[in-house]
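Chain and backbone:
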Amino acid sequence: MDPLISAAARALASGSPLDALNLVALRDDADALALRGIALSQLGDLARARVLIRRAARSFGPRNPKARARCIVAEAEIALVSRDVAWPGKMLHAARITLQAQGDHANAEQARYISARRLLLLGRLDEAQHLLDEAQPDIAPPALKSTHELIAAGIAMRRGRADMAHAALGRAATAAGQSGIPALMAEVRQAQKELDAPVARLFLHGLERKLRLAEVQALHESEMLVVDACRNALWRLDNTVPLATRPVLFGLARMLGEAWPRDVSRDALIAKVFRMKIADETHRARLRVEIGRLRKLLAPVAEIHTTPRGFLLKPLHSSEVGVLARPHETEHGAILALLADGESWPSSALALALNVSQRSVQRALDTLAASGQAQSQGRGPARRWMSSPLPGFTTSLLLSLPLAVD
């Protein structure tokens, strides 16, 4: 093996992209192009990195399927960091099969974890978990063990399991420390900060307090009846009443939950939920109909009592009623939540992640830009969006396993 290529690969594996560039910056052979591409990606120059890796893949050609598959894996990770979630997953799957057949188990597992991260980003948690279940982290190098646990923590956090996420991040921190890669250790620290950050607000007895994920999990295990404004549902323990497709009914339930243990007047319900400043008999008749529908749906967990001035929510098996809401409620909170990772997103990727039309996302982005909550760069198809500058975010790009050369 070329000693310069070997030295550059070792530098990348230890998280020293500048040292790797110093060794191969002036070379244009396929191995050097691949290593230069990975080094630039670690330094954040993703556009040039993708060009170099594609050139390397073409140079390797079909005569060197292992090296070409490694280039595909590297490009897939750059696409993930670039939030190009529409990048063809079939190519990555084929590259993983090739690497597995060629005996390159480390890079094959890297391809698996890139696929799992893409699925996690799209909210397809069961599919991401399935990929993790097929992995063998115990025989993987420390960097891949840490990656495995980071993905496991991400799935647990999305499912509201703070205990599982905390345990996974502890294992990820240990493995990242063993790897000695600063970017990987920083990513684990960032994930730990996110786990400890407030994720919701609880309204109870007229008071508001912020909750961490562990406290939200504790709510799921308590006897409290929760009006969940994050998922538009009511639940107590394992008994859930979904109202995501019934916004009017959920609006009524939320107002009743926020007022508990007091009642809410008919005029207040009409003004807030129906958006009518002045109520007449037709609005009161509609309110009676909607309350009747809500009363029927909530029968397993609560009753709605009529009072002289309005209505009162009465839980059946709970001593308290609380309302769970997002930390910051805005009209386009789902888009802001995706942009909060600090990466720049194309509108097409946001639409795919949210399962809505790209035109709807574009209108929302224009609104957020006008209010100063989002900003864009580039024009046309190259236009990308990000949240307003927030310090402290680290890139999720690892690329900790360079394209080793045989």
Notes: Residues 162-179 form the longest helix (18 residues). The chain has a mean pLDDT of 86.
